[in-house]
Amino acid sequence: MPVTDVQHDLDTLTLTITADFAAPVERIWQVYADPRQLEKVWGPPTYPATVVEHSLTPGGRVTYYMTGPEGEKFAGYWEIVAVDEPGSLTFLDGFADEEFTPNTELPVSKNVYTFTEHDGGTRATYVSTYESADALQQVLDMGVVEGASSAINQIDDLLAS
User: Fold this and answer.
1) Domain range for 101
2) For 59-63, what is the mean pLDDT?
3) Looking at the DSSP assignment, which residues form a beta bridge with residue 76?
């Protein structure tokens, strides 16, 4: 399993997931840069993602929905803040309605994904920062650690295919 560490800190309002992949940084970058590849790893296995819009440029937007086992759809969006291909990506990630209008009742996180060379492969560090301890606790209660970890762990299968 690629995920090697998961830490959440209510004081710094962060959730940090570390994963190691036996692939070069440029290959891991492509997982996020290509919407068809992103679909294979963004949602947990039982909630596959469909990417609708994908503009991985500062000011751009990525919209998607995940489909649950009973066919229910959960929409979300990224607002791209910064892109430093292939080393890092910064974006706001939020929940949305079916038209991809942000759902202001649910937390938005600022995410910094960093990809660095490590032991002949890539170390990916995923840091999500929330506006408050309550917001972080809310997503923890919703199962974000399990969902994100199982999603990230799908990257190995994608790399092997």
Assistant:
1) 3-160
2) 98
3) 64, 95
